[in-house]
Amino acid sequence: MSTALADRPRRTGAARYRQTLWLLTSRDLKVRYSTSALGYVWSILDPLVMAGIYYFVFQVVFKRSVGEDPYIVFLLSGLLPWMWFNGAVSDSTRAFIREAKLVRSTKIPRTIWVFRLVGSKGIEFALSLPVLALFAVVGRAELHWQVVFLPVAMVMQTVLVAGVGLVVAPLVVFFRDLERATKLALRFLFYASPIIYGTQDLPDELHLLAAFNPLSGIFGLYRAAFFPEQLDLLEVLVGAGMCVVLLVIGLGVFRASERAVLKEI
């Protein structure tokens, strides 16, 4: 009985954390959609426009064979999860600065201000999956049993985005130029990641290097639903390890800088 009583506050604390996280996440989504006439459409319009541009450039103008057919499905299966990663990391640079008063005045764990961004962008990604399915039907892309790896990819990406966000969010408070540097790094990472191309299109000597980009394994898992040959076990295993390492680093950086962040903001 004593053990059960001792565990009750922990369970209650965890339940409160989850409830607060959900409230903040849903608030972000409501605010984002309520202030826009098109609402949900904007969350999918950007990747659709980008996919159209890259499709025109590579398939129509240069007629270069990168990725796989149907290329529009190949593009979207990389662009949609990229928008989750890019949006959450970009917003993490303002996670504490934008909500400075609430961060200082509330007693909830401050990690929640990063995790809410991971959650809201993740929900937007999940809501965009029907669009990918629609293009897959129109493009007659065959669905394979590897679609079961979709939850694995989402878990890996959640861990990755959380880890990067926990590093970026507190450091921007001390180094404001890091916000612009993060945007430049994301722009570079876009082209360094297999979004408009697949790792199979890279030279053999770059395959191992590409595996250390955790997005390579994650995108491979997403694309495996329609393009099984894009799944590389080495990339997935190395990417999973990198995701865990980045999360551990992020938690360490966050805990070490939390008090200083509260004083700075």
Number of strands: 0
- Order of secondary-structure elements: HHHHHHHHHHH
- Main beta-sheet strand count, sense and barrel state: none
Q: Assign a percent range to the helix content.
A: over 70%
Q: Kindly provide the radius of gyration, computed on alpha-carbon positions and rounded to a whole number of angstroms.
A: 20 Å
Portion of residues in beta strands equals under 5%
Query: Given the structure, what is the number of helices?
Result: 11
Structural write-up:
The chain is mainly alpha-helical and 265 residues long. The protein has one domain (2-264). The chain has 11 helices and no strands. The protein has helices at residues 2-34, 40-61, 71-92, 95-98, 100-105, 112-138, 150-174, 178-192, 207-211, 214-223, 233-264. The protein starts with a helix and ends with a helix. The model is unreliable at 1-7 (pLDDT under 50).
Question: What is the compact description of this entry?
Answer:
The protein is mostly helical and 265 residues long. The chain contains 11 helices and no strands. It has one domain (2-264).
Q: Topology of this structure?
A:
Elements: H1 2-34, H2 40-61, H3 71-92, H4 95-98, H5 100-105, H6 112-138, H7 150-174, H8 178-192, H9 207-211, H10 214-223, H11 233-264
Helix pairs in contact: 1-6, 2-3, 3-6, 3-7, 3-8, 6-7, 7-10, 7-11, 10-11
